[in-house]
Design goal:
The complex is a heterodimer of chains A (about 290) and B (about 425).
Chain A (H helix, E strand, L loop, with lengths): L1 H31 L17 H8 L1 H31 L5 H15 L2 H12 L4 H8 L11 H29 L3 H9 L4 H12 L1 H16 L3 H7 L10 H11 L3 H34 L1
Helix pairs in contact in A: 1-13, 2-13, 3-7, 3-10, 4-7, 5-11, 7-10, 7-11, 8-9, 10-13, 12-13
Chain B lengths: L7 H20 L15 E6 L8 H14 L3 E6 L6 H10 L6 E3 L26 H4 L11 E4 L2 E5 H6 L9 H13 L3 E4 L5 H17 L3 H6 L5 H17 L12 H9 L3 E5 L4 H8 L5 E5 L12 E6 L2 E3 L6 H13 L1 H11 L12 H12 L3 E2 L4 E2 L2 E2 L4 H10 L7 H15 L1
Parallel strand pairs in B: 1-2, 1-3, 6-7, 9-11
Antiparallel strand pairs in B: 3-10, 4-9, 5-7, 5-8, 12-13
Classes of the chains: A mainly alpha (about 290), B alpha/beta (about 425).
Chain lengths: ~290, ~425
């Protein structure tokens, strides 16, 4: 009995927090997704799977889903490539490297809203870059006014704002690469390229997995940078799933429909994160085997 | 050794806890159906307000100070939105069972009205601006401080003179011709932007001609006798031709509203369609050119000036769930009828009200003249009162109009908006 009480007293607080902060909101979202709640009414009507059926017919939601997946896929790759690349560049103990590490991490410290407004001042039609171009007699570049350019700009800014974390994770991973193995490769006459691909990268496999999953999950929830950089435009072309959830929920007073979108996004995020983690685990086992 | 905790009973206990917590959270909202408690003559009144660069929290606190001084023991607590605005904050507060007593910015519609106090029996509401137009099924839920004129075209008089335009255009053909002359004179004819501006400007421009051609446009739309896209098609086609002719900047969607205002006020553009709140910005900016304003033109053959799109400025509502009903109503009455409070709010956000013209700037007086000369005042976009379109229309319209810049035809835009309207019926 005492053992049970001890266990309960240790697990209890964490369990209560877990339930209140995670389980309840998820259950509530699930429940609301089956209603027509407008955010105000006292008694939302139960509509079954109607919101989910509407979701499959909503061209805007489907488009936002594809945009989100594109941002997540391209962004994840770029974050990992740039993260690892810069980590290798500043992986030394010099003061200059310490300075560059701070500089590389700095964008991540800024609020995404601030980052968005900052870059809109740089990339906007009357922004710094276009101001300079027009002063030289060149044409304005449609960084934020053309749908394809705007999406590319959004991804670029997301990568700029986020890759500092990847650098830090890869730097930590690089410290774990066995110096003996590196030395043995050097003695065996391996080139830097061969050493990287055959020694360093396999040793970083677990860090790569963590980076990929974290980046993927973060990018699938992209919202605040969309608000401040493109506002979902032009013509709704950079609306992400998270942006549309908030838009439908509060601008259109369709919290039931917004909740259905949240549930689907949550399931897709969990599914993709698990898939990536499993694929990476299989690849890691292959390397070790 | 501690024993394993994996027992079915514990799983059931956990599930029960979840169900109880979910139920508690679901029932915890402030969805009271009562009409609020009369409350005491003293105490706290919580007011959720819109915060903008003009309407700061300290401004609101200063505004209600005289009310607090005149009513000892009353504390008006100004609450800023915790979300991106009042519209998304209010549902959160309601769901949390923590609703304010008074809300500013929103207007009652069929979704909001059941949560709001019916003010119809309050005699003082009858003299407040637009109260009748904003009423819902004959009931007053929303009262406001003033009006915002919507269908205004601000223009650079110096650019007009340089382009050889002798008088402001009265119809849309004259407006298009003026754009051609402004372009030839080296000006960007019409300043626009991305964000909400693109769709808003076309709505503001359309108010006089649509309201003239279809005096009961909202009723025709809601009864499906007419479609938004079809009725707006001529204006969409005209706008499409402006993009093709370079009368608006093809890269304008990369600008935010502030950027567009700066461009116009720096003298680069000939015209800027915007609501009367722009007067305050323009007066503060003190542009180097002579700035004027004219009423949005009508279609050729229609009388000019046409009806003016107007919206209620600083709308207030009292929540039905309030525990301080009498004090809340008293506060709202004071906010919309006390001369000093009204004057302050009008001046602070560039709004208008008959009888309050003394302190208007020359540009403000021109707007007041336009309001006075308009044969009729009409709702715009999502509208209010009996004249409403589905929630989300303004945003959807904005996206649709922006797609004219990304290669969609006017007809495709009209079809898109009609399809969206169809999905909301």
């Amino acid at each position: 009995m005492r053992a049970r009480l001890t266990t309960l007293s240790m697990v209890g607080p964490a369990l209560v927090l877990f339930v209140v902060m995670l389980v309840v909101p998820v259950c509530l979202s699930l429940y609301l997704s089956l209603t027509d709640w407008d955010g105000y009414s006292a008694n939302p009507a139960f509509v079954g799977l109607k919101n989910y059926v509407s979701l499959t017919h909503s061209a805007e939601a489907i488009r936002a889903g594809w945009v989100t997946l594109l941002i997540a896929a391209v962004g994840t790759v770029l974050l990992s490539v740039f993260g690892l690349g810069f980590a290798l560049l500043v992986n030394g103990a010099s003061r200059l490297n310490a300075f560059f590490r701070i500089v590389l991490f700095y964008p991540h410290v800024l609020s995404a809203l601030v980052v968005g407004f900052l870059w809109s001042a740089v990339l906007g039609t009357s922004g710094v870059v276009n101001g300079w171009l027009t002063s030289k007699g060149a044409e304005v570049l449609p960084f934020l006014s053309d749908p394809k350019w705007a999406l590319a700009s959004l991804i670029a800014v997301l990568v700029w704002a986020g890759f500092g974390v990847n650098v830090v994770l890869y730097l930590a991973g690089l410290q774990t690469v066995s110096k003996d193995l590196l030395e043995a490769a050097h003695i065996d006459g391996a080139s830097k390229r061969q050493t990287f691909f055959n020694v360093t990268l396999p040793a970083l496999a677990p860090v790569v997995t963590v980076n990929l999953v974290l980046s993927l999950v973060t990018l699938l929830k992209t919202y605040d940078l969309v608000v401040s950089l493109t506002g979902g435009g032009p013509a709704g072309s950079t609306q992400t799933a998270a942006y549309l959830i908030l838009w439908d929920s509060f601008h259109n007073n369709a919290l039931g429909f917004g909740s259905a979108q949240s549930v689907v996004l949550m399931l897709i995020t969990a599914g993709l994160a698990l898939t990536v983690a499993r694929l990476r685990a299989r690849a890691d086992r292959g390397v070790q085997g | 050794m501690a024993r394993s905790v994996r027992k079915p009973g514990r799983k059931l206990g956990l599930l029960t806890s979840v169900v109880i917590l979910v139920g508690a959270a679901g029932c915890g909202g402030g969805f009271s159906d009562d009409k609020g408690a009369a409350g005491d003559s003293t105490g706290e009144v919580r007011m959720l307000v819109n915060i903008t660069p003009n309407l700061t929290k300290s401004y609101w606190e200063g505004l209600v100070k005289p009310f607090e001084d005149a009513n000892p023991g009353v504390d008006v607590k100004i609450e800023a939105p915790t979300g991106s605005g009042v519209k998304d904050t209010l549902p959160q507060l309601l769901a949390a069972g923590n609703a304010p007593d008074v809300v500013e910015t929103l207007m009652a519609d069929k979704v909001l009205a059941p949560q709001m106090l019916d003010l119809t029996d309050q005699a003082w509401t009858k003299d407040t601006p637009l109260v009748e137009q904003a009423s819902l099924d004959g009931k007053v839920y929303t009262v406001g401080v003033g009006q915002q004129a919507q269908s205004l075209v601000f223009y650079n008089k110096d650019a007009f003179i340089k382009a050889g335009i002798s008088a402001p255009p009265k119809d849309l053909d004259e407006l298009t011709a003026a754009m051609g002359k402004l372009k030839a004179a080296g000006y960007l004819p019409l300043q626009t932007a991305g964000d909400y501006v693109t769709g808003l400007q076309l709505l503001q421009l359309s108010d006089p001609s649509i309201a003239t051609k279809y005096p009961d446009w909202y009723q025709q739309i809601s009864s499906k006798q007419a479609k938004v896209g079809e009725t707006m098609l001529p204006l969409l086609e005209r706008y499409e031709s402006w993009i093709k002719n370079g009368y608006v900047d093809k890269n304008a969607l990369g600008l935010k509203d502030v950027g567009a205002q700066t461009n116009f006020l720096s003298g680069k553009a000939g015209m800027y369609i915007m609501g009367s709140w722009f007067v305050r910005t323009a007066d503060d900016a003190k542009p180097k050119f002579d700035l004027g304003v004219f009423a949005a033109p009508t279609e050729a053959g229609q009388p000019s000036p046409g009806p003016q799109g107007v919206t209620m400025a600083a709308p207030y509502m009292v929540l039905k769930s309030t525990k301080q009903r009498d004090l809340s109503v008293k506060l709202v009455q004071w906010l919309v009828t006390d001369k000093t409070a009204v004057q302050s709010q009008l001046a602070q956000d560039g709004n208008f009200r008959k009888g309050y013209t003394d302190k208007l700037s020359p540009l403000g007086k021109q707007v007041q003249d336009i309001l006075d000369q308009a044969p009729k005042q009409v709702a715009q976009g999502e509208g209010y009162g009996a004249n409403t379109l589905p929630q989300g229309f303004n945003g959807e319209w904005n996206k649709a109009v922006q797609s004219l810049y990304t290669g969609k035809s006017a007809k495709a835009v009209a079809t898109r908006i009609d399809s969206w309207m169809g999905s909301k019926s």
